[in-house]
Amino acid sequence: MRDALLFDLTNTLKRENLLLTFCGPFSQGIIEEIGTALQGYLAAGENPPSHNSSVFSIFIEQTQNIRNYFRSRRIDEFTDPQHGYGIVVIGNDSGRFSISSGNLISNDDLPALADRIRTINALTREELQDLYKQTLRNKRMNEGGGAGLGFIEMARRASQPLEFATRAVDAGHSFFTLHVVI
């Protein structure tokens, strides 16, 4: 049965032009290894270096967001597989890259997260740049271990607004997905 599942999964990934997919715990070592593979793939392509840089940067931001969220909630992704997994998927459809990620989050965290993304999506390119500079000047680390630049940086590099969705999993958790197109 697994051979049929893997065959079907492989065909689905090809049909959807998905180049890289990872689902599991996001340790720093795993992020680095996947990042190295991604850089190799991008270097072999015919994309401008700035395009490759944007794909790689967004991959790093999304995977670090997942890892930092787990750390801020004291979730050990290796010993708590129910709550500590994430997924990242990178696709390339005729030179248009998409980077999507997802992970389980507490429903208590959803309103602030949704508001943050909606606020960033409402800004112009100039306003994004100003917010980026202002956030850099503040250099205040948040509880997740970052300075709050991740969504701003992704929006600056994206060719369209950040897309997100949630799906209820149980009374206390939802699966959050983020989709960025370059």
Helix content: 40-55%
Structural class assignment: alpha+beta
> Care to count the β-strands?
5
Quote the CATH topology: Heat Shock Protein 90
Pick out the low-confidence regions: none
- The secondary-structure element order is HEHHEEHHHEE
Q: Name the overall outline.
A: globular
Q: What is the CATH architecture annotation? A: 2-Layer Sandwich
Tally of helical runs: 6
Q: Count up the domains.
A: 1
What is the radius of gyration computed over CA atoms, rounded to a whole number of angstroms? 17 Å
Major sheet = 5 strands, antiparallel
Strand content: 15-25%
CATH class: Alpha Beta
State the fourth-level CATH superfamily. Histidine kinase-like ATPase, C-terminal domain
Distance between the termini: 37 Å
Description:
- This protein has a five-stranded antiparallel sheet.
- By secondary structure, it is an alpha+beta fold.
- It has a single domain (2-181), classed as Histidine kinase-like ATPase, C-terminal domain (Heat Shock Protein 90), CATH 3.30.565.10.
- It contains six helices and five strands.
- The radius of gyration is 17 Å and the shape is globular.
Write the layout of secondary structure elements.
Layout: H1 2-15, E1 18-24, H2 28-44, H3 49-72, E2 86-93, E3 96-106, H4 110-121, H5 125-138, H6 150-157, E4 163-168, E5 173-181
Antiparallel strand pairs: 1-2, 2-3, 3-5, 4-5
Briefly, what is this?
By secondary structure, the chain is of the alpha+beta class. Helices cover 49% and strands 23% of the residues.
